[in-house]
Amino acid sequence: MLSDFAKTYYPLEFDTIHDEFKLVKETECKLMEFCTNVSMAEELERIMRGDIVGEAAHVALEKTYRDHFIHSFQDFLTGTILLDKFYGDFNNWYSPSLNLELRTSVECSWLLTALFHDRFRPLLKLGELLGEKIPPGEDNSSKFACNLASFYAHLSTGKTLESWSPTDAESSSTLGTILLNHSNLGNHAARGAFTILGYDLPIAAPTKYAAALAIALHDGDPRNDLLGSKILPVKMEQFPLVVLLMYIDAAQEWNRTAGSKDELVDILLENNQVVFVMDFSSAAANSHKAQEFESIARCIISPISLGFASSFSIGSGSA
Asked: Of 283, 274, 280, 264, nearest to 305 (Cα)?
């Protein structure tokens, strides 16, 4: 399916950004239908339109807007390259038994993780521009926060993904409290995690929660709280999708803004190393990315070296 998309996409020159968005959205719907038996077409349409409106509003106010819709698909594609390269490792880290079925597989969970990790970002950015607070959209946030905390604790002790199950019981926990607090403050990661758990998808709970936890922990805003509470750093062997999303989301910088000259030059894949080779438009852009990778390095422990290199030697770094 991805090969067919590439053959269609590569030679095209789009008249408008909406034309490109539409092709990507149609591909995402096909992938969702294939993996989960539900296309999520209406939800993906809302995300797409939110990004288009958000960009138009920023342009009108002469502000820089970072893309989220195409970015999420690019996260999925680049993450899939790493899954493919280290598939035996990801199979063992995720769950060999759940990987036997597509709807419970690491590929299915990664698709959900990547496509929906920025679900609320365009809406919240638009709300900032308009001076309006976007209200919470999920009534079961407290229950989902408790289950995410239970899920995290379960995997942290070395238990298997398939042996965890959600509960309706609500209890206080450090992680649950942090997620709820940041959700109330408008954090897109916490809200996105709660929202994906509310989707009616015919897939196993551990598969959905693996995606939701990765979404919940990927953003920088709650990072100090999570580090201070010893929730971070996380080990890749226990939380492969959390680590993968943090790394891929930081690495995917090319074409994030209109007129951006930052480019992906290459992806170097060695036995135990991944390096995204970037060509940054300025030393400042390079320095900013180096700082982001330094932040992520404090949050993950990985047997695979995950880093980036660039044309500016002052900013090269790794996670």
From this structure: 274
Q: How many CA atoms lie within 13 A of 188 on its CB side?
A: 18
Q: Tell me how far apart the alpha carbons of residues 42 and 195 are, in angstroms, rounded to a whole number.
A: 14
Mean pLDDT over the full length of the chain: 89
Query: Could you tell me the residue ranges of all domains in the chain?
Result: 2-318
| Tokens (6 digits) for 127 | 């709300």
- Identify the burial level of 135 via C-beta atoms within 10 angstroms of its C-beta, where 0-12 means exposed, 13-18 middle and 19 or more buried: exposed
Helix (H) or strand (E) run with residue 222 in it: none
DSSP state of 186: T
Instruction: List the beta bridge partners of residue 308.
Output: 276, 317
- Whether 273 and 307 have beta carbons less than 8 Å apart is answered as yes
Give the confidence band of 315 by pLDDT, cuts at 50, 70, 90. Answer: very low
pTM: 0.92
